[in-house]
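Exercise (ungraded).
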Amino acid sequence: MGKHKLRIIPLGGLGEIGKNMMAIEYANDIIVVDAGLMFPEEDMHGVDMVIPEISYLLERREKLKGIVLTHGHEDHIGALPYILPQLDTPLYGTKLTQGLVTVKLKEHRYSDKATTKVIQPGQKYPLGNLTIEPFSVCHSIPDSIGLIIHTPIGAVVHSGDFKIDYTPVDSKPTDLARLAQLGAQGVLLLLADSTYAELSGYTPSETVVGETLDHIIADAPGRVIIATFSSLISRIQQVIDAAARHDRHVFIIGRSMKNTTKMAAELGYLNIPTGVVRQPDELHRFPHDKIVLLTTGSQGEPTSALVRIANHDNSQVRITRGDTVVMSATPVPGNETLVHRTVDTLFRQGAQVIYEKLAQVHVHGHGSQEELKLLLNLVKPKFFMPIHGEYRHLSLHAKLAKSLGMPESNVFIIENGNILELDRNKARITDKVPAGNVYVDGLVMGDLANVVLRDRKMLSRDGIVVVIVAIDKKKGKIIGRPDIVSRGFVDTTEEETILEQGRDLVATTLERSSGRPLEWSFINTKVKDTLGKFFYEQTKRRPMILTTTMEV
Amino acid sequence: MGKHKLRIIPLGGLGEIGKNMMAIEYANDIIVVDAGLMFPEEDMHGVDMVIPEISYLLERREKLKGIVLTHGHEDHIGALPYILPQLDTPLYGTKLTQGLVTVKLKEHRYSDKATTKVIQPGQKYPLGNLTIEPFSVCHSIPDSIGLIIHTPIGAVVHSGDFKIDYTPVDSKPTDLARLAQLGAQGVLLLLADSTYAELSGYTPSETVVGETLDHIIADAPGRVIIATFSSLISRIQQVIDAAARHDRHVFIIGRSMKNTTKMAAELGYLNIPTGVVRQPDELHRFPHDKIVLLTTGSQGEPTSALVRIANHDNSQVRITRGDTVVMSATPVPGNETLVHRTVDTLFRQGAQVIYEKLAQVHVHGHGSQEELKLLLNLVKPKFFMPIHGEYRHLSLHAKLAKSLGMPESNVFIIENGNILELDRNKARITDKVPAGNVYVDGLVMGDLANVVLRDRKMLSRDGIVVVIVAIDKKKGKIIGRPDIVSRGFVDTTEEETILEQGRDLVATTLERSSGRPLEWSFINTKVKDTLGKFFYEQTKRRPMILTTTMEV
């Protein structure tokens, strides 16, 4: 025991390090923490989602003892339908997390084939040489856990996504006592959430939002429409409680909100007093000041219930003067424009809209600087590796650790695919393993060769021009005038003139250079040069030019 | 006098109302306030910029008395090179604003043809029936003004972009005294900046930033690199002052920063103590703790000096451990990803990066709620119309006015192209005039027909497939197998198989339906249906399908 090295490898996260997947390896055992997806960035045209590359795990499949899931958010479980068929390994997670995983695997018709084991905080689960011991953490979904990983050379603590909330609504507080006890015994390595390392102070408690929602529901002259994430079950609970207190009925609008609340209620994570929640077809039976509507759409998603309502595209609800709409969420980076448009549309129709900038209708699920310091102080790790965040967040988290007296040489900021290798006394960054992003686009998973993305980007800018040249097979000369069609390049009013001129230009150019039999590569070069220049002069645009020849 | 109606028409602003252009019309006179541009939103593929539609003005060119510019930012002067040749009317603006306009018009070789008149706060300038009286306001560029417009039926106040800063760095404080005096005499209408109507309290003074920068420069162990907007001359002044105080030299990196500081110094808006600013080729002569670098790139613009430095693409500067980089600006909405990537890259190279979330290294140039209330209180207008902001900002600004006791019926939220028509006692929204967005794309200005933008969007998602079918003119039958090429659709590894299958499919389909002579529209429909379905089944993607026929 102890003669092997412990290897920590962040494997997934678009820009963020170790966010979607981490591998922990000792001798002949590997456990994986989380298997999530990320949504594509702006310049990844047409990509539906991004998942971690798992070639490192595939090559060591016999070592793999299981995937442990810290909680049920998409960025931690969303890649399972894509990678589980390849890895075929048991899944460990708490009850609600497994509930959400099952729903997801069912959609992909894989639920029968998966081995899922429900785990509980405070219990220990040996997976080969590595024993995992989950501990409760607060986050924006119930049943979230962090992990103590007992290894032959010492304990590793993985925080999961966490905040410290002494008055959480639906979950146990983060188990500081167990962490303090462990810290006293000695912890080899801490891996901790850096998402909000930029923010000073403490993240407010979920209870604060409950108070704001209570005031809004008490004071609103008409209906209150509250949009939030369907997985934010504590928020849903607070809405139901506030509605009940003020003698209002709650109507749940939209399929995903209905499904999650149903599942959460069945598993015991949502407590709905009798008679409070009603079916949408009963809406007309109640006056407006007795109504609370609960919907998705806090991110301005075009197909969500709230956006349909705002766009007069929902059969049950239409905004009227007197309605109060609460956006009980922060726009996820990249969604700002959609959210703003939705808010503007709602205001236009006479609603009062309350959102994060105007009142505390949302708190986030990650710890701020003081919470990060508290965790570091309790766990007192020998080595520290910030994870879950982009490089700047990790840098700031590392700086916090140093400000608490940790030696700089014991703090490691590493990138996805880097390996942190440890024994009892030393840690260092060694190898680099493949840990790219796998793009899921339609049915295809792969690296979606840069060329496809580059083409799409180019097409999106100035469109495309297709040139078809007919060639007399025997004579090697062009027949008639070449054909040109375009899309996304010029307006229909300009199109005819410029394309006709282009046809003439290509014809002249190719006729002039007919000293030898025409072949595609020669034609292609000529056409690209001549037309490219001509179109740029005329329009200052550079469409993609595609030449095809047809021999007849 | 007084028998005509006064008409107020917001003409330009992408999402924002009246931001880029307002028209004010009385009897036979029209004055225009500002002529700015907006940068395109995400879904406006390939559009370079967006300018206001001016057809309303072109139809009334004989009435137009001039364009009055409130300040020299792009969103207030940037459309001039495009619209001035069409409108050919005099420009009124303060000295620095005219300086920036001249630079801009020179670039477009139009400066000789423009009539520009320098105006001064406190003076009156009659333009037909309408007399403009500029007043000083604080904003993030010196020489900013608001306008009192004296009309035959009463005074109109246009705030321009403004904040209230009692300790501005390089401009006069907002002229509250003149506004109070005018308010006492009676103001018909106030048009006021709503940009920050979401924020409670007061916007901090520019001086606060000076203190933060002073501390950073005093404490930094090595070089300090400060990135900001080149037009933010007060910030540049504060950097130069702090550097001088701490015995450091300032090196200005990047063309646009050099040009603006030169111009501002020549016009007297920037005060540079002798010997403080040095040429970049002297950089090696000074130790790192005697150096401050001033650059553009606070928005992560790929061609800016800071981004080039971060990417090892600047010949003079390379980041080393010990450097401190200050992002002295907020990311403009839409630029967040670029800014974050730049910050991450700088951290990766060992720099300490200080940005808005970590310290007060930026304040914005617009008033918050208390300032908006103060303006309303001083001006005491009979009618109020919030401008400069998206619909939600205007709604919140209107709500503020109502909270101060203004009757709801005297507050008007209108959209671009709506006309607010007033006499001494009444105001109402009447007509709707054309006020769309004109897209500038390359050399073309126009509405860039939705079809072009829609095509580009579709192309950017799943690419394009071009099908070329050769037809025997005499027999009306296809010749050989159709040709298929694609771009941005599938990876090269999958491409051959799927396109070959597609060729067979098209050939079979067209051969089977050869009861009558083949013509393009029939072929096009068949090909789109068959291939569209086939590709979707195979890939879950929907590329654009373009069919061309060639008769031989």
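Further reading is listed at the end of the chapter. For now, observe: Chain B touches chain A through 69 residues (CB under 8 Å). The first strand of chain B starts at residue 6 and ends at 12.
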